[in-house]
Specification:
heterodimer; A: about 450 residues; alpha+beta; Rieske Iron-sulfur Protein; Naphthalene 1,2-dioxygenase Alpha Subunit, Chain A, domain 1; 2 domains; 8-stranded antiparallel β-sheet; 12 helices; 21 strands; B: about 170 residues; Nuclear Transport Factor 2, Chain: A; about 25% helix; globular; 3-phenylpropionate/trans-cinnamate dioxygenase beta subunit (chain B)
Amino acid sequence: MTIERQRPVSDPIVIDDLEHLSFRVDRRAYTDDDLAAREMSRIFDRCWLYVGHESEVPGPGSYVARDVGGRPVVMARGSDGVIRVFANSCTHRGALICSQPAGQARSFRCPYHDWTFSNRGDLVGVPIPDGYGPGFRKADFGLAQHRSDGYRGFVFVTFDPEQPRTLTEYLAGATEYLDLIDDQSEVGMEVIQGAQLHGARANWKLMMENSVDIYHFRALHKRYVGYMESLGSVPPQRRGGFGCALGLGHGANELPPAAARPLAYWTPMFGTEVRPRIEATAARFVDRFGAERAERITGTNRAVLIFPNLMIIDAIAITIRKIDPVGAGQMAITSVALAPKDEDPDIRELRKSHYLTFLGPAGFATPDDIEIVESCQRGYLNRTVRYSDLSRGMNKKVPETTDELPAREFWRQWDRLMHGDDGHLEVAHRAETQGAEPR
Amino acid sequence: MTTELTVDEAAQVRLWHRVSQFLFREARLLDEWRLLEWYDEMLTDDIRYSVPATDVRGETADALGLIDDDAARLRQRIEQLLNGEVWCENPRSRTNRMISNVEILTDRGTHLDVAANVVVYRFGHGRSDSYVGKCRFELVVEGESFRVRRRVVVLDHETLYEHGKLSIIL
């Protein structure tokens, strides 16, 4: 009989050493199936998770069906105009009550026995009802409704009835960044149709790290940098900006644009024809918000990580990236573009065009990100090197964008939740700088 | 007993044969990474190459896709692929394109609308993937041959979850 030597259970995954300015993550965090299962119960069953944007259910009766935290759900706007998130599972025997990814419905009918639910979740139809006794009440069999809430159009759900925080409390400092996104239109933002649905054979956390990692930009994305330089743009490298921790695992990078921004920041790569329109928009933002905040909304790039699995990147276009674990070694990625509802049609075309240049599974950058996270996952198969290092910027009061503070903030919250600490006290206990003061 | 082709049918068969040979050559150049030859000899100056998103599949006019290249961006894509800067295509993946169901939908004399099915097998970096799709070509007649002016590949996959990325030209 073989007795395998296992590491003691107290063996830490995250080694956060403020004294020696060292931050290491044991690579088991990316490969271990037990840890992946525990993430589902300790993180995805408890946190507020992004479901979608309210523009995806624009009118009464519209719905989307998708997986959130590994669970099939339906986000539906009822005939009463209220957005609800339901378990996509019939209360009778459990089949999906909605198998279309999106659409318009007054009711959802389970195909198994024709139980029918209104778009507000009430059970309204049961065939051959005389098979049930007097104790059977339809009111007991409505769709399971999850606790959901929205912040500036971003809809989240939590599967934890005991979740102590409201959504706004949970989002902590990230609300400021969602404000900077949603303030980009007076009539509201909308998701552009056409989702980029792809994935990677790597642990989901590698893509979260990658999405707030600007250090890799010049190395891995040489071809994109070359393309930008050919258009007269300056890629990021110590061009100012800062990385920050926003509390409760959220973090962000904020930096001057490397290229044009379709909202209201013109550079020659957009062509001279749209220049007056873009500059007029910029002027309207100054009128609405004052010069300083207008500059931050229109003339600054940002990448925001919302714990655990949402990334919003606002640069040459805005992408919302939802990254879902599928076991330890695989992830599913859903990326969509967000834009002002009232955008000029020519500028909308520029936005889409430049979105595709960089982003998505066939862009000039994202495919290399996919390949490199898969490469990391393969590298971990050689277990000799036990730790990954995420210490960049621990020596600075204000970490730069090429540092790793947002990723450390992610890992610190991950570590607290994996230890069953819901993180009430962590803000006071944090010793490391939060990054720059908001401007 | 054999049935003779009518003159009209014979002309159609010849045209279909020329179109098929053209598409087979295109597939071969792409498989052999002769991308500049493909770009220079088989496409028009105003080529548009697009791959719609797998959810809306090109049915929604204003939707975002996966690829929407004009000539300049396609040229950029090719140069990147050839100069080794595309990390996920270095070393180059091996591909094998199967073109079938070639059908000339409309013949407008100077332009043809052509449909075809395609399966692209891709092997590289320890992975094997297949991309399955329906192609629509707008071909401009140029003497005895053609140039591609519009090239749309509508993928049949629900998602690219298995593939992760689309780093080759389909």
